[in-house]
Amino acid sequence: MLLTRILRSVVVLALVGLLTMALPSLTTGNPAIAALGMEASREQIAEFLSRLNLDDPAPQRLAAWLGNAAQGDLGSSLTTGREVAEEIITRLPITLELLALGQVLALAITLPVAMASAWRPGSILDRFATTVAFVLISIPVFVLGLLAIALFAVMLNLLPATGWVHPLDDPVGHVRHLVLPVLTVGLSEAAVLVRVLRADLITTLGQPYVMAARSRGMSLPRLMLTRALRPSSLSTVTLVGLGFGAVFGGSALIETVFAVPGMGRLAVSAIGARDFPVIEAIIIFSAVAVLLAMAIVDFLYTRIDPRTRRGRS
Amino acid sequence: MAAVEQTPAATAPHAATQTYNRRRVGGLDLLCLTYLVCLATGCLLSLVLPQIDAYGQDFTAVLQPPSPEHWFGTDSNGRDIFDRTLKGGLSSIVVALLTVTIGIVVGGGLGVVGGYLGGVADVVVGTLLELLLSLPGLILVMVVITLLGPGYWTIGTLIGIFMIAPFARIARSATLAVRDRSFVQASRLLGAGPARAIVTEVIPSVLPAVGAYAFTAVTAAVVAEGSLSFLGFGLQPPEPSWGGLISEGRTHLGTAPWITLAPSMVLCATILSVNLLGQRLSTTTRQP
Amino acid sequence: MSGLVVTDLHVRYRVPGGVLDAVGGVSLAVRPGSAVGLVGESGSGKSSLARAIVGLTPIFSGSILLDGQPVAPRRGPGGVQMVFQDPIGSLNPSRQVIDIVAESLTIDGVRRATRRERAAEMLTEVGLPPNLFATRRPGQLSGGQAQRVAIARALLAEPAVLVADEPVSGVDVSVQAGLVNLLHRTTSKSGAAMLFVSHDLAIVRALCDDIVVLKNGQVREAGRTNAVIDDPQDSYTRELIEAVPEI
Amino acid sequence: MTHHNHPLLSVRGLSVGLSDVDGRSAHVLEDVDLTVAASESVGLVGESGSGKSVLARTVLGLHPRTTHITAQGGISFAGNELLGLTPRAHRQTLGTDVSMIFQDPSSSLNPVVRVGAQILEATHRRQSSAHQRRALLTGLLESVGLTDVERIARAYPSELSGGQRQRVGIAAALAGAPRLLMADEPTTALDVSVQRTILDLLDQLRHERSLAMIHVTHDLALLSGRSDRIIVLYAGRVMEDGPTPQVLTQPAHPYTRALMEMRPRLRRPQPLPLPQIRGDLPRLDQPRTGCPFAPRCALADTRCHSERPPTTPVPESTLGHVAACWRTVEAAALAVPLREPAGRSHP
Q1: Terminal alpha carbon distance of chain C
Q2: Where residue B285 falls among pLDDT bands split at 50, 70, 90?
Q3: What phi and psi values does residue B239 have, to the nearest 5 degrees?
Q4: B49 CB near a chain A CB, below 8 Å?
Q5: Option in B136, B142, B271 nearest A248 (CB)
Q6: Mean pLDDT, chain A, integer
Q7: Domains, chain A, ranges and CATH?
Q8: Which CATH class is domain D1-97+179-264+288-347?
Q9: Is the pTM of this model over 0.90?
Q10: Hey, is the C-beta of A2 within 8 angstroms of any chain C C-beta?
Q11: Given an 8 Å threshold on Cβ–Cβ distance, is B268 in contact with A140?
């Protein structure tokens, strides 16, 4: 079971790697000229091509990339010249902080709202919560971000609109800059989570075992917290897990809106510049992150539901 | 044994996961439908009506606020935002339709075949789905668009490829749920081959789930197209698109917010309408 | 040898941490036109055995012969058909009753008018007037009516053996008797043999000529129904009979 | 025979309508009377749609939160009126005096909570030390015939067999020291051989603890020798109510008779075809007039279809044996006055 799972992940990663390494062959025209500009000399171009081995077949390029990566060498950016590994190490914490705080906020909103909603489906509170969630779900994250800027930065002038400050340089400024992007991530994520968790809670509350616990005199608040929440949390855990799986590049929109120099911005600028070493690293690491997140989610399943521990009955 | 009380109330499907007061076509449904029809008509008319001018610059009327003449105001080049929004909607419509078609045909097909046949076919489909799921969709689409150049068809096809996975997953699990139901097995016993079983027994059972997801997929495609053009990887200027218009207005958010807000509202209203209609449809077409 | 003959049949499932011998070497025979009751509790392997006989579950070893030939997917009359436990679930919810009943004729390429006519006759036969039921969909049927439709569908395929897997255990007492009578009457009339899978000894005694008692995938006792129930030789069979409450 | 002077539970003229969020509604119970005396065992028999489970749930105040119920009549438990209370007050009035055993032990136990914790759910309001709780748990598990108490208390429901799960369900129902046990088809989901041991266990516990019990079932035969009284429900109405021996040996209502005759007998087989009644169970979402069984009844005349039969004492039987049938009314009119049963008085 576990073995086939690992095997499948390896196959998937190999396919991702091959696909990634085949990308340069899609380029129309000469990638060297595209990268170096028209005034590049013949020697420069030749050196460029041999360094990047862009013309090699994908398997060969993948093997070379893996060989280098094993030694900690992910290549250098074509535009900035900085090492890709260094670029990732400086930017990854920025994105991680943003996503982690966003998810925490989303969960902090979701848990009470979903429970209150599922408490009495159809109540005024439930209708209000589901309507707000429904509207929020229909607002793309970049529009939500711009609305937040328009309201809090432009109209009310409470918070900085865009930008990012290093926490050691200016802790207060760091937090002030984080508020709007975190709020945006948190709200749009919460809209999805509330709907999912509410529906799952309602399903659970309709189960015979909940009625059985009620027949033994268990109060509803206790029932909700100690009996219903856990079996209802599988989809929510999956979504949060996949949210973290998006740490490499999934944050491109939010970072663009708020000009946060994280992984997402790195991806967008690298793609615009056809900076293949950066692009390749981001895609491969992104796949690793997603597979890792899914593995963690699966592990959490076995913690949540004992039935998943030894094959399902 | 027949012990469960078979009162209609006791056996009613758990409906509380849906919002209430449904079953009847409400004013809201009509409003959404009217909006979407008008929008689509307007977008299509922008192709033929010379009055809808998405490109004409008028430097005597830059950054004008909304007025009877310019419903959504004008941008920094004096172009009419309303006309540009209508023209920009075309790209969303084409991309959404293309995407959902690819998703239903390829994804739905793969899911049904993999789920029904099982074995090697299912392993291949499963691996393909995991591959698609683990790839950073937005980034990969941007890379390929950069390399191949943007266009309706390229964008639609690329987003469509990433829409295969969710459709296939839904179709596969619906197929698995129905494959071992005894009515499918009964048709096998009566001599139906896999093709007949899939067409007459499986597909009708899978269709409602896939159809319900199609609405979600339309909104996802519209958001994806908007995101791409917002990041500058959609149709290139001066060709308008909703994401592009929203992005262009960002620098004027303080002085001329309508440039960003007007197309944003149109975008959100579109998504909201599709979502609402999808939800209504999926709750009313369930088996009684 | 005529009739259905099962010889040393094994059915295995892979389960987490090993294999499960659901059916572990079962032999039995169903003579043409006779009714055999297959009795056992949950986990006895009776459903696995029934599904293996109709070909819905692959067999691990052993043989299943019908009139000396291996049981193959249906081609025309004289094969095996099945009636399932869950009556509503065994009917495609999106199709009309008349089309469900006529399915085997559709597959055989019979003309539409002919197959409608024969399906309507069969509906009458099972006690569902076609003018009331032909155009209904499964969602508009009660459990008992749905099971009648399923029986009609199976009988229209003219099977030599009808395998009925707990066909009356999901329905109410007041509906059960009608279904038992229907199964008896229609199989007697068409000459089809029946393998009646059930946990209900009383119904098996009423309906079946022979009985096979199954436990943990093995035959514990087999013989004429009256003889086995009046004078059980096996301790488990005795236990089963004694556990049945009766007024 | 025990003297049943004060009814523990009394249901008077109860009518219940249910409607769900889709607005579909049904009259599930109509004018139902039911009394259960302390330590009395009552069998509640009916097929699908008879309302037997709804009756049990209405007494317990345990309806799904999404169904809307309207109820008329009265339910009182140990002198306290329950109908009309909010669900919360209803539950508080009952406390742990009434508990329920559910039909399907695998779905009525929470799959992600250890068995021990679920058994003690009924006791959480009482102040008690961990030691006391542990002793209580051990005692409960042992009293329902489970050995290897330590392992079972820590197990999840999926790690137990069907019979073990139902024993756990019974232990959980006993944890609050109830006076009335409501068993809703407690053995339907179990194998025949397990079925009998569970029924024996329930009988034993009931006698040991002087519990009153309502045994909801579709199977009349199960109640033979196990319950004091049988109440037969059809389409939400009481068809017949009487002491078990009388109902089983001289059933007065044609429906009760049909229920008994339609089941083939294992030990006294009869040739096919089995006696059967025409038609199908009635739909509860449509209005009914007259006797609900009339459309399927061989003895029905026009009055049966139009006029509702009153509940009438069955002639030639003991006191407390009543049926709602026009044929009984006619027979009673012709019969000699009732004889008084020996050694038994009824409120």
Answers
A1: 43
A2: low
A3: -65, 125
A4: no
A5: B136
A6: 89
A7: 17-70 (no CATH), 91-312 (1.10.3720.10)
A8: alpha beta
A9: no
A10: no
A11: yes
